[in-house]
Design brief:
Layout (H helix, E strand, L loop, with lengths): L6 E10 L12 E4 L2 E3 L5 E9 L5 E7 L14 E6 L4 E9 L9 E9 L2 E11 L6 H9 L1
Length: 143
């Protein structure tokens, strides 16, 4: 009898609660969005749900803006493999922002592939909060 095909579903994406990679618990969605206001320790990414895929190999990749390492060299995309652990499984792919904020701004693309085909693909835009000028403050007060 032929093995049934795995079913992949994008469960959620956006900003999440803080995630502890040392526990089995996945982070909780706080806001569905692809626009992320950059702040230290903000957690963003996506969760997929896999059914009937135990043992399948998934490839993940996070393409980030040109972030330099401690030697000033541009860091390569973060990529790797993960195996589906059981027949009803969830996987979180995400990142968090660390100082300095300025070199983390821009587009962060996250992909998950199975057998060479992309099954999840989201691009998150990290932006810096606009500073309100004194003039903006007083204009809003007059309204």
């Amino acid at each position: 009898m032929a093995k049934s095909k795995a079913i992949f579903t994008l469960q959620s994406y956006g900003i999440y609660s803080t995630w502890d990679s040392n526990t089995k618990a996945l982070p909780q969605i706080a806001q569905f969005t692809t626009q992320v206001q950059a702040a230290i320790d903000v957690e963003f990414g996506l969760i997929i749900h896999v059914k009937k895929g135990k043992g399948e190999k998934l490839q993940y990749c996070i393409y980030h803006p040109d972030i330099p390492d401690q030697h000033g060299e541009i860091m390569p995309p973060f990529s790797g493999y993960v195996y589906v652990k059981d027949s009803d499984w969830q996987f979180y792919l995400g990142d968090t922002i660390w100082p300095p904020l300025e070199n983390k701004l821009g587009d962060w693309r996250m992909t998950i592939a199975h057998n060479g085909s992309i099954i999840a693909d989201k691009t998150f835009t990290l932006f810096k909060a606009k500073q309100r000028s004194e003039e903006d403050f007083w204009q809003n007060k007059r309204r």
